[in-house]
Amino acid sequence: MFQQWKLLVWDESTISHKKDIEALNRTFQGLRESADIIGGMVVLSAGNFRQNLLVIQRGTPADEIRACIITSSVWAKTEIFCLKTIMRVHNNLDSGHMQRLLKINDECLNVDDEGYISFFREFRYLLENDVNLNAQVYPGLQQILNCDSTCAPNQYWLITMILSIKPTLKI
């Protein structure tokens, strides 16, 4: 089955140890009998180094960097594409939302005398239930879910779909 795969999607790869990608490389090179990186298979590796790094128990920040996948020999042969549109930000009517998210990532936040972080008012939500949470995080999702088979394909689904592969097993 692995020989037939054309694409491997690896979400949150940025928190993976470099040994993980190196083991994946050796495994698929062996399974596919190919010296190409990852046995010649396309790997869609998703993640954001600005959000989090892997954790090394009792390790120093230098240990975390040394273990990061970007220090792997496989990474040097990786072609990198960057996300151009973040749909949740794109759909948000507040033009300053992206700047506030970047401030959080850059740790440029207001800290009071006691060391507490003051979050932007826009990030504080009092929600009564899961339905309200879904409506806040995914605005318009309920209308899309209520659409029956007679509806025309919604543009939202066409631009935000995630590729999912379902292998067929013959038993």
UniProtKB/TrEMBL annotation:
Pfam families: PIF1 (PF05970). GO terms for biological process: DNA recombination; DNA repair; telomere maintenance. One of its GO terms (molecular function) is 5'-3' DNA helicase activity. The keyword Ribonucleoprotein does not apply. Its EC number is 5.6.2.3. The keyword Hydrolase applies. It catalyses: ATP + H2O = ADP + phosphate + H(+). It is an enzyme of class 5 (isomerase). Its cofactor is Mg(2+). Keywords: ATP-binding, DNA damage, DNA recombination, DNA repair, Helicase, Hydrolase, Nucleotide-binding. InterPro entries: DNA_helicase_pif1-like_DEAD (IPR010285). Residues 3-112 form the DNA helicase Pif1-like DEAD-box helicase domain. Belongs to the helicase family. This is ATP-dependent DNA helicase. It comes from Trichonephila inaurata madagascariensis.
